[in-house]
Amino acid sequence: MARITLEDLAHTYFDPAEGDVEWAVRRLDLEWADGGAFALLGPSGCGKTTLLNIMSGLLRPTRGRILFDDRDVTGLSPEARNIAQVFQFPVVYDTMSVYDNIAFPLRNRGMAEAEIAPRVAEIAELTELTPMLRQRAAGLTADGKQKISLARGLVRPDVNLVMFDEPLTVIDPHLKWVLRSKLRELHQRVRTTMIYVTHDQTEALTFADQVVVMNAGEVVQIGTPVELFEQPQHTFVGHFIGSPGMNVLPAKIENGTALFGGQPVEVANPVAAAEGVVELGIRPEFVRFAPTGIPATVTNVADAGRYRIIDTESRGHSIKLLVDEGEPIPSGAVNLGFAPGQTRLYRDGWLIGGAGR
């Protein structure tokens, strides 16, 4: 295991000497604690895979350093970094048995067979592969093959870091839940530093103790699942995490008061004395029907099982709210109330008074 530090890191696939180039990863400083469970979350093209390849040693960053327990590994190969990686599509040797697939990384490093057997048995038990150890891998289902990949990533006792690159993409929804739960259980038992890369918020939030959210090559927030949901530091985090995502509405600050459509709105973060155009963010969970408040019109009702998603329109802007199953829903003209403690102001996407800006 190791503490992973990214120091003043940035990367571009172009020549930075050419001037205004596009950066795949913008400047960042980041630390992954020894033995932690982390997720790197963001949409396709946001820089997740580039950052993963930099940490693994497949790519050398344009700027900055990578440290493993204060040891500079920036110029070292993936083998010298002593890491394991589980890919989106399982890499399995079909002609080998399940046992031989799991044992392969240990044999490749010259470990004695007497040491290999108990280690393979231990990891096979953890990944529920023991009954099929003598089977050929070719006959296994997709989830069985991905379990082999997981086991091979975990079998090395001296590994510094295990990285998962969207490992459940090819798995059907039910088995995704099973494997995700198993992976979380495995981390709690082996306590190896793990980084899980995904565009799926459910996978990230259910696996990781801490999530790093990226957008357009930039880290926009680092936090626990609860922090990301309750205190998004950027409107992108509010949009990307949650289903449905956070309502983001145009607002103004006048005389120290936030206004939406000319109507005062109480907010959680201080508006200071600055005047001007801002954005107001409020999650659907914290919007309610009220006797008085922001006038709106109900435009659609969608049943999501335990609750219903209500679409309303106010002053040309969409506002969503959630209503528990069985709760009456008014039709036509309504008034909406925003929970003051969960209503925040943003400027240029960033939370006013927040850590990001």
TrEMBL record:
Family recorded in the similarity comment: Belongs to the ABC transporter superfamily.
PANTHER family the UniProt entry points to: ABC TRANSPORTER ATP-BINDING PROTEIN, MALTODEXTRIN IMPORT ATP-BINDING PROTEIN MSMX
Keyword Hydrolase: no
Organism: Devosia nitrariae
Keywords linked to the UniProt accession: ATP-binding, Cell membrane, Membrane, Nucleotide-binding, Transport
Lineage of the species this protein comes from: Bacteria, Pseudomonadati, Pseudomonadota, Alphaproteobacteria, Hyphomicrobiales
Domain ABC transporter: 4-241
SMART domains: AAA
CDD domains in alphabetical order: ABC_Carb_Solutes_like (cd03259)
Name used for this protein in its record: ABC transporter ATP-binding protein
A GO molecular function held by the record: ATP binding
Entries under SUPFAM superfamilies matching the protein: MOP-like, P-loop containing nucleoside triphosphate hydrolases
InterPro entries tied to this protein: AAA+_ATPase, ABC_transporter-like_ATP-bd, ABC_transpr_FbpC, ABC_transpr_MalK/UgpC-like, Mo/tungstate-bd_C_term_dom, NA-bd_OB-fold, OB_MalK-like, P-loop_NTPase
